[in-house]
Design a protein that fits this description.
The complex is a heterodimer of chains A (about 160) and B (about 260). With about 160 residues, chain A is of the alpha+beta class. Chain A has helices at about 25-30, 85-95, 105-115, 125-130, 140-150, and strands spanning about 1-10, 10-15, 50, 55-60, 70-75. Chain A contains five helices and five strands. The longest helix of chain A is centred in the last third of the chain and has 14 residues, at about 105-115. Chain B is globular and about 55 Å long. A five-stranded antiparallel sheet of chain B has the order 4-5-8-6-7. A four-stranded antiparallel sheet of chain B has the order 9-10-11-12, with helices on both faces. Classes of the chains: A alpha+beta (about 160), B alpha+beta (about 260).
């Protein structure tokens, strides 16, 4: 067991972890931040995406011990301070960017990573950035629309429905 | 996963010392190793995480050489290797954005997956693999699928790439996993052309020397007309036969030459 300490959504947290404790398990089981989901547990689906020191990573594919000292943001940190939905979350609601919602936390975390680095992406760039996120309802078109809308761009031009 | 401890040294020297323990295993970005551990295909007593070692991170360019620290992520190479655009493009095409933010060049080159992209760039550039103990030429480094010249506990601290006049990497992605079904890296240097192929051979990455000879005299896709590689020793699986992969090698080499310009 080792003690780890990190900043999660602006708060300093710490806990005892085993060597093989995955970051996602630390978030969900120790911190009870269950918004971060485990979909495939094989690095494919992106439902467990979190922001690690400003870059999106798959929290099922790193160990909690490796996040010692890191600055993390999870889906719980994406809302506004007053608890209302953040810009990306509101766009997902407005454009119906979810069906069952299981993949949504990872999609939102991928989207914030893209928009931070590329504030006005093209539709092709949005689709390319979502390469590591799988939606088994296959609702990709509305997810792309939501992200385009969150970037302040016109979504009327997106071809497919 | 089996139980193990994790250490996070902050210098290469500390990491080398930690790896002397029996059954200790180096952990870089973990994008291959962690899925392997989950499947219980490895049972190290201890993982030595290299992610906290600042001295092995970063990209620098100097006098026609681009040096990439062993702990540099694919995303950092994609963003930082502008002095070698074909290398930056290759790094930016590995996996997906989240994988590129964790996976490292040192981890990829140490693992030497037969379908990985980086081995093609390292061999195709005639790069030098720098470890804590020595420097290894690419031609001596790759020794077959998942096999390299690295000794137990040896850590890749950097890879030094001579920057070519022209280069390009083209991969044909297996549509589900997006690993390279076949990938070809072509690089034109003043003293000749190098062609390295990944994804195709049961022996891992290899140089297509007949194509190198033809392209060294005439760097154009047409110079490859009539050349083919044998299907013997090519990987055959549900995604494609050995003959299909051999055909792709010739097609993608032409495309890479055309893309290099």
């Amino acid at each position: 067991m080792a003690n780890v300490s990190m900043t999660v959504n602006g708060k300093t947290v710490s806990g005892e972890v085993k060597g093989n404790t995955l970051l996602v398990d630390f978030l969900r089981q120790n911190l009870h931040l269950t918004g971060t989901h485990v979909g495939c547990d094989t690095s494919q689906c992106g439902a467990c995406n979190v922001s690690l020191n400003g870059d999106v990573v798959k929290s099922c594919t790193m160990f909690a011990a490796e996040a010692d000292g890191a600055d993390l943001t999870t889906i719980e940190g994406m809302a506004n301070e007053d608890g209302s939905l953040g810009v990306i979350q509101a766009a997902f609601q407005e454009y119906h960017g979810l069906q069952c919602g299981f993949c949504t936390p990872g999609m939102v975390m991928a989207a914030q990573d893209l928009l931070k680095k590329n504030p006005k992406p093209t539709e092709a760039e949005v689709r390319h950035h979502l390469e590591g996120n799988i939606c088994r309802c296959t609702g990709y078109h509305n997810i792309v629309k939501a992200i385009m809308a969150a970037s302040g761009q016109d979504v009327g031009a997106i071809a497919a429905e | 996963m089996y139980a193990f401890d994790i250490e996070r040294p902050t210098t290469v020297a500390e990491a080398v010392a930690a790896l002397k323990d029996e059954d200790a295993q180096a952990l870089s970005g973990g994008q291959t190793l962690i899925p392997t551990l989950k499947q219980r295909l490895a049972s190290p007593s201890k993982l030595v995480s290299l992610s906290g070692i600042a001295e092995t991170k970063g990209v620098s360019a100097d006098g026609g050489t681009v040096t990439v620290g062993g702990g540099t992520t694919h995303a950092a190479v994609a963003a930082g290797a502008s002095a070698y655009p074909a290398l930056a493009a290759l790094a930016g095409g590995i996996g997906d954005p989240a994988v590129r933010n964790r996976g490292t060049i040192g981890g990829s080159v140490a693992n030497n997956d037969p379908a990985a992209c980086y081995p093609a760039a390292v061999l195709g550039s005639g790069a030098t693999v720098v470890t804590n103990a020595r420097e290894i030429a690419a031609d001596d480094y790759f020794q077959g699928m998942f096999t390299t010249a690295l000794d137990e506990g040896e850590i890749i601290t950097a890879v030094k790439f001579p920057v070519p006049e022209k280069a390009a990497y083209i991969k044909f992605e297996q549509p589900a996993s997006r690993f390279a079904l076949v990938g070809v890296f072509v690089a034109k240097y003043a003293d000749g052309v190098r062609v390295a192929v990944t994804g195709a051979s049961e022996e891992g990455v290899f140089r297509w020397t007949e194509a190198e000879a033809a392209l060294s005299g005439n760097f154009s896709a047409g110079a490859l007309d009539g050349l083919s590689v044998s299907a013997d020793g090519m990987i055959s699986d549900l995604h494609g036969t050995g003959a299909y992969r051999a055909h792709l090698v010739a097609v993608l080499t032409k495309r890479a030459v055309a893309a290099a310009g």
